[in-house]
Design brief:
This protein is mostly helical. It contains nine helices and no strands.
C-alpha cells in the first residue's frame, strides 16, 4: 500500500509538472501571437503613411521637372509653352509657390488680369512678407491696359508696402515709379526711376534691364519737365 501511495504521489507530481509546463507553453504561445499581431498592426499603420510620403515625393519631383521646363520656356519668350508647363507643375503640386508666381506673371503678360489678380491676392495672404508678390500686384495695377484693373493709387500703396520689405530692390523702385507715373505724380516717378536705375547699376543688373530703366527714367524726367513748364 505504501508503494502504491508513493507511486500515486509520484504520478500526481508528474502530471502536476506536466500541467504547469503545458500552461506555460500556452501562455508563451499566446504572448507570441499577441506580439505578432501588434507588430503586424504597427506595420499596417505605418505603411499608408510611407506610401503617402512616397507619392508626395514623386509629385514634388514631377512638379520640379515641369517647373524647370516652364522657366526655360519663359526665358526663351515662349509664353504659351511656359504657361502649359506651369499648369502641369501645379497639377502635381497645387501649392507650389514658384509655379503660382510664374503663372501669375504670365497672366499679366497675356492680359488675363482677373486670373492674375486672384492668384496674386491669394498668395499675398499666404505669403504676407513676400515682396515679389506685392511687387507684381502693384505692377498689375500700374500697367493693366484694362481700366477695370488699372488703379494708380492701389499700385502706389502696394508698391510702398513692398518697398518697406525690400528697400534696395530695384524692381520694386521701378514699379513704384510706374505707379507714380500713371497717377500723374511725375516728379515722384522721376525720383523713384532714378533710384531704380542706380540700384540696378550697383547690382550689375542685366544690360536689358539697364536699358529699360534708362528709358523709364527719361520718360519720367520728360513728363516732370513738361508739367513744370505748364505750371
Amino acid at each position: 500500500m505504501r508503494y502504491i501511495k508513493q507511486q500515486n504521489d509520484w504520478t500526481a507530481r508528474r502530471y502536476s509538472w506536466l500541467g504547469r509546463a503545458l500552461s506555460l507553453l500556452c501562455a508563451l504561445s499566446l504572448f507570441a501571437l499577441c506580439a505578432t499581431d501588434a507588430v503586424a498592426q504597427e506595420k499596417n499603420k505605418k505603411r499608408p503613411v510611407d506610401e503617402v510620403e512616397e507619392e508626395e515625393s514623386q509629385d514634388q519631383d514631377l512638379a520640379a521637372y515641369w517647373l524647370k521646363i516652364a522657366y526655360q520656356n519663359f526665358n526663351r519668350g515662349q509664353v504659351r509653352r511656359a504657361m502649359n508647363a506651369f499648369e502641369r507643375a501645379l497639377m502635381e503640386d497645387p501649392s507650389n509657390r514658384d509655379a503660382r508666381f510664374g503663372l501669375s506673371t504670365l497672366y499679366i503678360q497675356v492680359k488675363e488680369y482677373a486670373l492674375a489678380e486672384r492668384m496674386l491676392l491669394d498668395m499675398e495672404k499666404e505669403f504676407p512678407v513676400d515682396y515679389s508678390v506685392k511687387n507684381n500686384i502693384a505692377w498689375l495695377y500700374a500697367t493693366a491696359s484694362s481700366p477695370v484693373f488699372r488703379n494708380g493709387e492701389k499700385a502706389i500703396s502696394v508698391a510702398r508696402s513692398a518697398l518697406l520689405i525690400a528697400p534696395r530692390d530695384y524692381h520694386v523702385w521701378s514699379t513704384l515709379s510706374e505707379a507714380y507715373y500713371v497717377n500723374g505724380q511725375y516728379e515722384h516717378a522721376q525720383r523713384a526711376a532714378q533710384e531704380a536705375f542706380w540700384l540696378a547699376h550697383a547690382a550689375k543688373a542685366p544690360l536689358s534691364d539697364m536699358h529699360s530703366y534708362r528709358d523709364q527714367l527719361r520718360k519720367c524726367a520728360k513728363a516732370a519737365q513738361a508739367m513744370s513748364l505748364m505750371e
